[in-house]
Specification:
Blueprint: H1 3-19, H2 30-37, H3 58-69, H4 81-84, H5 129-138, H6 147-155, H7 160-167, H8 175-190, H9 199-209, H10 212-215, H11 220-230, E1 249-250, E2 257-259, E3 262-263, H12 267-276, H13 294-299, E4 310-311, H14 333-341, H15 363-374
Antiparallel strand pairs: 1-4, 2-3
Organism: Hoeflea poritis
Pfam families: CCP_MauG
InterPro entries: Cyt_c-like_dom, Cyt_c-like_dom_sf, Cytochrome_c_Peroxidase/MauG, Di-haem_cyt_c_peroxidsae, MauG/Cytc_peroxidase
Length: 384
């Protein structure tokens, strides 16, 4: 926020305090208000994905939604995308680790607001949403399908006409191209999965307008929790911006042992997959002739420090997506706060990344931080 905006916010705050007692219920300082404004507005204005020519296309969105719920996208017709990404649970599921054809190694991440991501998946295996959408289709432990079967599905059956209208006859395409086009339709649908405004957003917007009487409707416990989030807890270091995530990868002190003798390499493995993928923003399947965004995959490098790092999730809608962390090891928000409150520094795996320290919050402070976190999820739940 620039200096003029800071002055305006401070002016509104002082004027509101002078005007009446209701503003006394706004606990934040001008500096805290300034920082709060960086977490909005919401929802964000996000345009079509230039790498996906059907992004924002209404017919592609409807087609993608059909595919998302269709078990015929899997090898034997037994699993759909919605099997794990349950709409009523914020497009996640309530088990610690996803269950495909076998138990998988990671928790099912929410798909809400996925269109705002920079990297995709817990380890950043993809740099775009359509590439990430095709990974579970091909994974032998998930949908276990293959490009040739999907080409046949698009040529003969209820989807043939829709596919042809969007992309041209599938008979004119290589099977790999058909696979990518299906993934692009899925991505067009997923881009529409956006959480609504919450009580935090109404508070934030009132602060921006200088409407302290309206801002005072936001519970004081949530305001105190926000102060901890911005200050003592330093949570905003990683959970930045309107989506409450910096979109990058950090070590949260969660063990990466999957079972004795086997570890989850985290970002280190994700970068290997990314750099070997033909489906990046720098590859032949992007629809963007300028290859915007390709600079990231061109310049990223794997290092030993990437072990044990996982993508920072958004906190929006988090109350509906338990359990938490990449391995689903924390069953509720109380457990998450307790984890950071007493974090064991010896369990941090990334040498040299000294971001986290035990928060040492009192019981009352824990309650306040939880009140704030829940205020990021009190919009209307996603319909099933």
């Amino acid at each position: 926020m620039n200096r003029l905006c800071r002055i305006i916010v401070a002016f509104h705050l002082v004027a509101a305090i002078i005007a009446g007692p209701a503003a006394a219920d706004v606990l934040l300082t001008p500096e805290e208000i300034s920082r709060t404004l960086t977490h909005g507005p919401w929802p964000p204005a996000v345009g079509p994905d230039p790498s996906n020519r059907v992004s924002g296309n209404a017919a592609a969105i409807a087609f993608g939604e059909q595919l998302f719920h269709d078990p015929d996208l899997s090898r034997d017709g037994s699993i759909s995308c919605a099997t794990c990404h349950v709409p009523a649970r914020g497009f996640s599921e309530d088990r610690p680790r996803a269950m495909g054809r076998v138990a998988l190694d990671r928790n099912t991440p929410s798909l809400m607001n996925v269109g705002t991501h920079r990297w995709f998946g817990w380890a950043g295996d993809s740099d775009n949403l359509w590439a990430q959408s095709l990974l579970p289709i091909l994974n032998a432990d998930e949908l276990a399908s293959d490009a040739q079967s999907l080409k046949t599905m698009m040529a003969d059956g209820p989807y043939a006409s829709t596919y042809a209208q969007l992309f041209g006859p599938s008979s004119d395409h290589a099977s790999e191209t058909v696979l990518v086009n299906i993934a692009k339709a899925l991505a067009a649908y997923k881009e529409t999965l956006i959480t609504g405004q919450t009580s935090f957003d109404r508070f934030r917007d009132a602060l921006e307008l200088g409407d302290m009487a309206r801002a005072a409707d936001y519970p004081e416990s949530a305001q105190r929790g926000l102060q901890i989030f911005l200050g003592k807890g330093n949570c905003a270091f990683c959970h930045t911006g309107p989506a409450f995530t910096n979109g990058e990868f950090h070590d949260a002190g969660v063990p990466y042992f999957i079972e004795p003798g086997r570890v989850d390499p985290g970002r280190h493995g994700g970068l290997k997959a990314l750099l070997e993928s033909p489906f990046t923003l720098d590859g032949a399947f992007t629809d963007d002739p300028g290859k915007r965004g390709a600079w990231a995959v061109r310049n990223v490098r794997r290092t030993h420090l990437d072990f044990g790092k996982f993508r920072v999730p958004s906190l929006r809608g988090a109350s509906r997506t338990a359990p938490y962390m990449h391995d689903g090891s924390l069953p509720d928000l109380e457990s998450v706060v307790a984890h950071y409150n007493t974090i064991d520094m010896e369990r941090l795996h990334a040498d040299g990344e000294a971001i986290l320290m035990p928060l040492n919050l009192s019981d009352d402070e824990v309650d306040d931080l939880l009140a704030f976190l829940r205020s990021l999820s009190d919009d209307q739940p996603v319909a099933d």
